[in-house]
Each structure stands twice: as structure tokens, then as C-alpha cells.
From TrEMBL:
This is Oxidoreductase. PROSITE patterns: VOC (PS51819). InterPro entries: Glyas_Bleomycin-R_OHBP_Dase (IPR029068), Glyas_Fos-R_dOase_dom (IPR004360), GlyoxalaseI/FosfomycinResist (IPR050383), VOC_core (IPR037523). Residues 8-123, 141-259 form the VOC domain.
Amino acid sequence: MTDRLITHLRHVDLAVPDLARQRDFFTGAWGLTAEHGDTGISFLAAEGSPEQYVVRLRRAAEKRIDLIAFGAATPADVDALALGLATAGVPLVGEPGALRTPGGGYGFRFFDNEGRTVEISADVAVRDHRRIEEGESVPVRLSHVVVNSADPEGTVAFYRRHLGFRLSDTLVHPRMGEMMWFLRINSWHHSMAVARGPHPSLHHASFELRGLDEYMRGTGRLLRAGVEKIWGPGRHLAGNNTFSYFLDPHGNTVEYTTELEHVDEDTWHPHLYDFSRPEVSDQWGTANAMNEFVAARSFNDPDAGLFTAPPV
């Protein structure tokens, strides 16, 4: 396994046909803030996060994941990661250099094993952010991103070998075998997870709220607004975090969560959790049952952007 030079998750970038509708959803009911924008593109920040933005939206003919972005500590670490990937034959979109997105910085992009575009950057300017107050049910930060994979074993191996991700836990099923792998890049239980699916796509993007009360208030606000709920509210066993899953206007699953577990990396040993046991999916027993309907919605549409870098 490579040395872990990635420090954290920065943002997830989505392309959608109806940019205005998607932006209105994320800045309205969902609670993000539009910080920057240009014709055909919007950068959305979380009020509690030092990241310049946690979601980037771009108008496009087909919906896709434009990229998933991670941070590194220094430009030297960015260069080391780029060199290691190139030496291993991983296709780079471009060599490391100055970024022209909000906050600047130094970074590069590459394609992972299934063709998703991934960005790694350092020296991005810190955004002026604030403490989220008690009762304020807006996202504090982007918690994690989960992707569907037609080759999940290969995808997990790619991120562990080339990027230093570590395995926290795995969900298994008595008939279907291993189904979801939780990967960490710091002490958070997971910043990324890989789910077995019929095709590469976004499974869900998760946003952390201040605490349980804020999480429930946010969940209630979305329900009152008529946003379609897929699953929740409940609390997972793997990661010990709460969950409420909703659909955005383009059919992507987005999650409100809180209290994601911090692990002691010196002593942690990955678990195999049998998610046919109801308490594994939901410790509380308050969520609707995980069934074929929930699973099918999380499969999403096949990603239209594989091995094609976004234009910006």
C-alpha cells in the first residue's frame, strides 16, 4: 500500500441538464450557499466548511459525475502522487499545475480504474466559514461520497494501492457476498465507499449536520418541502452515523448524516457486517426497510462521463 498522502475529501462535482433546478434545490431545501458562479457552472459551499465549495454543478446534456476531489498537504505530495500514478500506468488527465477554480491551489486530475475523474490538490485558499449554531439545520461539511462499481474489488484495490485508502468495514450478504466497502483517508470512519452495482455511477453524496437535533430538523424540513425520501431516518452500524436519503431533482441520492465515527487507526480492525440483519442497516429500527426499491434508486443512471474529463 502506498503512503497515505491524501488528507481529506474536498468536493463532488456533478453535471446536470437543468442547472437552475439543481442549484435551487441545493441552495434552497438542502441548505448550501452559492459562493461563486459563471455561465453554466455554480460552486456551492457548506457554511461550516473551510473548503471553497463542496459541490460544483455544471450544465451538460447528460448527467454525470464530473469529478471527485481530495486534498493533499503540500504541492510536493501532489507531485509524488502524480508520479506514482503515472509510473503505475494510471492515465493522467494533465500534469500537476496551478488550478483555476475558486481558491486556486496546485493539483492534477486522473482517471481511476473505471474511468471516473479524480482531482488531488494542495494549497487551496481556506474559505471564510463559521460555526454552525444550535438548531441550525444546514450542512457543516461534505462527509463522504459513495460510488457504485461494476468491479468493486478492483476499485477498492485501486484506491488502496495507489492512493493509500484504508479499509474500515465491509457489508456482506449471505447470498450475494461482499457488497459495500468503507474506505478512510483520516480518522473519520469513511470518506469514500464502494458499492457493488450494475454499472459505475454515483450511489450517494453525504452531508454532515451539526448534531442529532439539527439532523432531524433538516430531515423534517425536506419532508415538509415534498422532497422524495428514499430511506431513513435511522442509524447505520458501520460508521455509527445517522442517515436520511433523498433524491435530488436529477435522481441522484443525497444524504443527511451526523455523528460519523472516528476510529483509532492504531487499533482498528475491519468488521464484516451482515446487512441481512436489520440492526446492521438501522440500529434504531426507525427507517423504512432496505428493499429492492431502495437499492434500485441507489443504482442511479450509468455514469455518462467515464474516461472523459470534464471541460472545466
